[in-house]
């Protein structure tokens, strides 16, 4: 790989070999814009997008001593840090604490006149985001990652043009280019995001007050989190999902359990519905279903997924292939169809999760450096949904296992009997373990672990390891689970599958 140079002599052509592929690489400084010379710099790796995938690769490459340019149009940290994972989970924690405080009398803790100062809630959220942003910026600086603030566009032959907010431009040349532009919220016909009446996740996380009545459209992970958050803050919530169940694609028992729990909490969750549109009324907004039923609310939240930011990619000039939904097509090593260019994170059609972006960054970097890389098995990645109750899972659902023709043994353990769950006053939950059935008819390899309940996002680790290491129920049954803990429910469920149950048959 080429070492970094400040400005290279005009019109010098190099040929570099990356992963046994010859790539013609022009490093001249002859590009002009409005008659002026365009500055140009060369790096080992140029990364477009400073979200979790992009900054993870930059940090890891910096540790390897590589010269790295990181292009970000907004703030490093991307959606996850500023408009997604971090602020959303802080507000979810605040809402859960508010609800728990109101119910503190069950523990003999008498608190009168519990109220919510939402401005302080938002200030705390922003303080956390700012602290993490400052820490991340400092870490990138310490790894000698050079930041470029602006919109980066891949031109061709591993050249990235950065258009800055002040109108100036700079050209970056990389031995390798990694695309990580992320994603933005999607909308649906008749519900254009206006930031006032119809909100995406971006606007929800910056609300100044909690709406009294809200409709959340979309019963996926984000929609369920928002419905739970608003409900815990005291809003009247209607959750609408076009699919037959909440959390489409999730294990059926888990989805049904969450639906029942939402109903007990007062969330009006409707599935299999078709939404016609909305109109303004004297008192607010009216959302109407095809059936004629309607809901009068203050705000509408659209949570129907996210779309990749790939509008700046021109396939004809870059050689990048996009699929029908606009995602960049990559192989198992995150290589695109263009030589010397990789793509990671939300712009590829893989689970749009920050930790998946981290993992893809390491795969791409390893491939760039010529290291032996283990591709990601996306069927076994961990999923975490921070609703109340939480949902966490890894591996195949019971339905998907049976669709694949796998003969399975299934065991479910309700949290009602878990002593720690009773202590904290949250017994709403279940642990479900799915194992292959052996020739002897007994449970063998664990292929799926699915959980609903308090703090299951923190408990999934053992199940995730079991699924990814191909552990059998007998392997896991030998492990001692601490008592009393929420996590022992997983161990108890596996013990039961192994025919060694104590509390479970």
The backbone outline, from C-alpha atoms, is: globular
What about the largest sheet? Answer: 7 strands, mixed
Range of strand content: 25-35%
Strands, total number: 26
Mean of residue pLDDT values: 91
Spell out the CATH superfamily of the largest domain. FAD/NAD(P)-binding domain
Q: Share of helix among residues?
A: 25-40%
Helix segment tally? 14
Low-confidence stretches: 1-37
Radius of gyration: 25 Å
Question: What would a concise description of this structure say?
Answer:
By secondary structure, this protein is α/β, with parallel strands linked by helices. 30% of the residues lie in helices and 27% in strands. Strands 5, 6, 7, 8, 9, 10 and 21 form a seven-stranded mixed beta sheet that branches. It has a five-stranded parallel beta sheet with strand order 12-19-13-14-15.
Question: Would you write up a description of this structure?
Answer:
The chain is about 30% helix and about 25% strand. It is of the alpha/beta class. The chain has 3 domains: about 15-80 and about 145-185 and about 310-370, FAD/NAD(P)-binding domain; about 200-305, 3-Layer(bba) Sandwich (FAD/NAD(P)-binding domain), CATH 3.50.50; about 390-495, Enolase-like, domain 1. The strands form 7 sheets. Strands 5, 6, 7, 8, 9, 10 and 21 form a 7-stranded mixed sheet that branches. The protein is globular and about 65 Å long.
């Amino acid at each position: 790989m080429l070492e970094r140079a400040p400005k290279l002599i005009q019109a010098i052509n190099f040929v570099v070999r990356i992963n046994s592929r010859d790539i013609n690489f022009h490093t001249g400084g002859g590009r002009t814009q409005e008659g002026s010379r365009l500055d140009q710099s060369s790096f080992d790796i140029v990364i477009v997008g400073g979200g979790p995938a992009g900054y993870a690769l930059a940090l890891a490459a910096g540790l390897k001593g590589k010269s790295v340019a990181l292009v970000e149009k907004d703030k490093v940290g991307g959606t996850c840090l500023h408009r997604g994972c971090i602020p959303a989970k802080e507000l979810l924690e605040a809402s859960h604490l508010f609800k728990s405080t109101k119910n503190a009398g069950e523990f003999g803790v008498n608190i009168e006149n519990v109220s919510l100062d939402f401005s302080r809630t938002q200030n705390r959220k922003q303080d956390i985001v700012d602290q993490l942003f400052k820490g991340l910026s400092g870490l990138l600086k310490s790894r000698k990652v050079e930041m470029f603030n602006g919109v980066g566009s891949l031109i061709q032959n591993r050249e990235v043009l950065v258009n800055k907010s002040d109108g100036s431009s700079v050209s970056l040349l990389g031995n390798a280019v990694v695309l990580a532009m992320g994603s933005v919220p999607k909308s649906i016909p008749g519900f254009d995001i206006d930031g006032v009446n119809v909100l995406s996740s971006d606007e929800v996380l910056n609300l100044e007050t909690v709406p009294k009545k809200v409709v959340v459209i979309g019963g996926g992970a984000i929609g369920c989190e928002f419905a739970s958050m608003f409900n815990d803050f005291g809003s009247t919530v209607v959750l609408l999902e076009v699919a037959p169940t909440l959390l489409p694609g999730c294990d059926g028992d888990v989805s049904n359990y969450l639906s029942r729990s939402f109903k007990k909490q007062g969330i009006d969750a409707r599935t299999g519905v078709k939404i016609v549109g909305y109109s303004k009324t004297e008192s607010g907004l009216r959302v109407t279903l095809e059936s004629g039923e309607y809901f009068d609310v203050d705000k509408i939240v659209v949570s129907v997924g996210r779309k990749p930011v790939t509008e700046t990619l021109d396939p004809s000039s870059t050689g990048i292939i996009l699929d029908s939904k606009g995602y960049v097509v990559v192989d198992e090593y995150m290589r695109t169809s263009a030589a010397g260019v990789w793509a990671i994170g939300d712009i590829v059609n893989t689970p749009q999760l920050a930790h998946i972006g981290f993992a893809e960054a390491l795969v791409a970097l390893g491939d760039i450096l010529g290291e032996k890389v283990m591709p990601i098995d996306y069927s076994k990645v961990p999923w975490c949904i921070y609703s109340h109750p939480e949902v966490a899972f890894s591996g195949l659902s019971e339905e998907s296992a049976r669709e694949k023709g796998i003969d399975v043994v299934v065991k479910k353990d309700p949290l009602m009997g878990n002593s720690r769950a009773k202590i904290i006053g949250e017994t709403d939950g279940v642990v479900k373990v799915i194992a292959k059935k052996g020739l002897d008819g007994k449970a063998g390899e664990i292929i799926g672990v699915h959980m609903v309940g308090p703090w299951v996002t923190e408990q999934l680790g053992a199940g995730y390891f079991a699924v990814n290491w191909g552990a059998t129920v007998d392997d896991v049954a030998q492990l001692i689970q601490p008592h009393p803990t929420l996590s022992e429910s997983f161990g108890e469920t596996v013990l039961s599958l192994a025919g060694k149950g104590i509390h479970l048959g």
